[in-house]
Amino acid sequence: MRLLLEEDQVVIRQPQGLLRQPRVAGTMDALAGCNRGAATLPENSSGALRMAREGLLPTSEPVDAFTESLCQRYAVADVLATQCQKRGVRLIRAYAVLVLLTAMLLGVIYYFPPLKPRPGSAAPTASSPAASSLHTATLPPDRNSPTQSRYAQWRNLLRKDPAAVMAYMLVVLAIFLLYSLTSQRNVTRRFANFRGLAEGLRVQVFWRLAGLSHRVADHYQSHQVEELEWLRVALKTVYLDDTGVPSPNIHVVRSLWVHGQHAWLKRKIATLRAADRRLAVAFWVLLGPAAPWALLKVLNEAFPQWCGVPSIDGSWSGLSLGLSFGMLALSWASAAFMVVATYRKLRGFGQIAARYERLLPLYRAARRKTDPLEAEDADDQVQATVLELGKHALAENADWLLLQKDVRFEPPKG
């Protein structure tokens, strides 16, 4: 089953003079991407589709044919959004692991001197040219150094520890390949597209069940219309099969949407806050080594005669030994801190929880307004409440979609 109509059917409804405009072209691309995703769902997705359909509205509840088609389209969009989300999480985790591995290899290259002397080498003193050259190879390349080019610095590092340098280059290559793959697949944007479409269809389903004739595509705020043109066009295509508003089923709307969504939000907020707290603990624990690591790095560069100058024959001074391993350990901890901070930002558990917390009072108020209604005009009051609840949900979801444009993978710099 196709999620939307064919692209040529949508184009017919657009003025021909607008087809060359970038905004309309982007709308057509988004619609085509949704259709491609729906058409390429694997055969083993039938179970996930049934669960998504049941999660929206149990099949035991009788609905008209058009509402059932909306439920089926919602299930497809929800499954596609979940698949893109899982794929994005795997990419973020792989990216974090590779960046951490890169930082650890850099620590080994810069701060871990060779343990074995070269054959035929004499043991120089700390002030000899050989020791000075070796020390230079154990420090991060100085971009402003007038005496040594970056090529010469990395050549010294390669001579010092070729295995670590080659491993570092391979990991950096893997990072850029992953970045290229992420950019081409555009997982974040596709996830936002499918999730936005699913949420719009969810609101439309419950508006119909409440006996409302309002269309979701007409209720995005004015400042969101241009940015979300593709979503409005996509939602408008589903109305071509509209058979009219069915009789209201207020009990289903109250129990499954107002009460059900309120309970789901509470559970989801608790889960997201717990995940964010775990990352926050790791963030603050790893923040401790950042200051001493930076201080030792400054001392290492300001007073090279005190640290990082082991002799070629493998003998170590006590201070050099402690500082070398200390710098290595602290650089690893500081790298882990930066990776955790980036991972926490990309996952955005706290931001998502805050977004849900803004919706929670709306559903709580809707519960209070709809639960005690037993008067003759109860259905009208419930319909008014459900309409306002849907408008707020659409506005909040649209704001989230606009924020997803700023979520980007960036390769490490420097």
What can you see in these coordinates?
The protein is mostly helical and 414 residues long. Residues 5-20, 115-147 and 308-315 have low confidence and may be disordered. It is elongated. It has one domain (41-406). The chain is 71% helix and 0% strand. α3 (46-56) crosses α4 (65-111) and α14 (349-370) packs antiparallel against α15 (378-403). It is built from 15 helices and no strands.
Provide a quick synopsis of the model.
With 414 residues, this protein is an all-alpha fold. The chain has one domain.
Number of domains: 1
User: Which assembly state applies to the chains in this document?
Assistant: single chain
What helical percentage do the residues reach? over 70%
Uncertain ranges: 5-20, 115-147, 308-315
Based on CA atoms alone, the radius of gyration comes out at 30 Å
The proportion of strand residues reads under 5%
Mean pLDDT across every amino acid position: 75
| Number of beta-strand segments | 0
Envelope shape: elongated
Largest sheet: none
The total of helices stands at 15
Distance between the termini: 48 Å
Class by SSE composition: mainly alpha
Order of helices and strands: HHHHHHHHHHHHHHH
Structure characteristics:
single chain; 414 residues; mainly alpha; 15 helices; 71% helix; 0% strand
Give the SSE layout.
Blueprint: H1 7-12, H2 22-39, H3 46-56, H4 65-111, H5 129-138, H6 150-160, H7 162-185, H8 187-209, H9 222-225, H10 229-237, H11 250-287, H12 290-302, H13 318-347, H14 349-370, H15 378-403
